[in-house]
């Protein structure tokens, strides 16, 4: 009996296609423009523009793991859990508020912060610069998340960046956020 093979979307192939499509379009544009250029100045300008465009880096949000040796990369999806019409999540209707999701999501939980407009951020509540242990779980007060270890590392939950005096190589682990109507979905691949 033959099994029917289903084609699945390959995320690596999709990223490569997106990356190289930009270069192909740029090359096509340059080939069409080249006959119109008649001076060395225009050729040089075109060459500089091409080098500038090729040097631009893609957004690193697709690589959400950040290669952090302390934080494993767990997959999760809140789906329709965060419904802003429900009382536990209604604070996310108003700017400068946050909710904390328990450890069923992420490693030690997730903080979801609403900065206003369409700006929602979600971060892991584990100190990214400590090995996982009980003191590395972050406690949120205002817009700051602090670990309970002796060195008390502190991070901003709006940007995920460490506060002045915090040592280490990593900022908070960011998770993906999407708002559709009253539902805020937070996930990690």
How would you characterize the overall build of this protein?
By secondary structure, this protein is an alpha+beta fold. It has two domains: 48 residues; 113 residues, Rieske [2Fe-2S] iron-sulphur domain (Rieske Iron-sulfur Protein), CATH 2.102.10. It has two helices and ten strands, in the order ααββββββββββ. Strands 1, 2, 3, 4, 5, 9 and 10 form a seven-stranded antiparallel beta sheet that branches. Strands 6-7-8 form a three-stranded antiparallel beta sheet, with no helix packed on it. The relative contact order is 0.14.
Helix and strand topology:
Blueprint: H1 11-33, H2 40-55, E1 76-77, E2 82-83, E3 97-101, E4 110-116, E5 119-124, E6 138-141, E7 144-147, E8 154-156, E9 174-180, E10 183-188
Antiparallel strand pairs: 1-10, 2-10, 3-4, 4-5, 5-9, 6-7, 7-8, 9-10
């Amino acid at each position: 009996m033959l099994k029917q093979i289903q084609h699945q979307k390959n995320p690596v192939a999709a990223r490569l296609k997106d990356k190289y499509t930009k270069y192909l379009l740029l090359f096509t544009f340059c080939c069409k423009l080249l006959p119109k250029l008649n001076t060395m100045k225009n050729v040089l300008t075109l060459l500089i523009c091409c080098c500038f465009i090729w040097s631009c880096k893609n957004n690193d949000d697709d690589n959400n793991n950040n290669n952090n040796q302390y934080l494993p990369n767990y997959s999760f999806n809140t789906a329709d859990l965060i419904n802003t019409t429900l009382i536990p999540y209604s604070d996310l209707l108003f700017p400068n508020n946050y909710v904390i999701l328990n450890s069923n999501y992420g490693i030690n939980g997730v903080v979801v912060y609403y900065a206003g407009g369409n700006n929602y951020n979600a971060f892991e509540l584990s100190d990214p610069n400590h090995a996982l242990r009980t003191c590395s779980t972050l406690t949120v007060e205002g817009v700051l998340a602090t670990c309970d270890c002796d060195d008390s590392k502190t991070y901003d939950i709006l940007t995920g960046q460490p506060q002045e005096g915090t040592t280490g190589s990593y900022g908070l682990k960011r998770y993906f956020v999407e708002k559709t109507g009253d539902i805020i979905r937070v996930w990690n691949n």
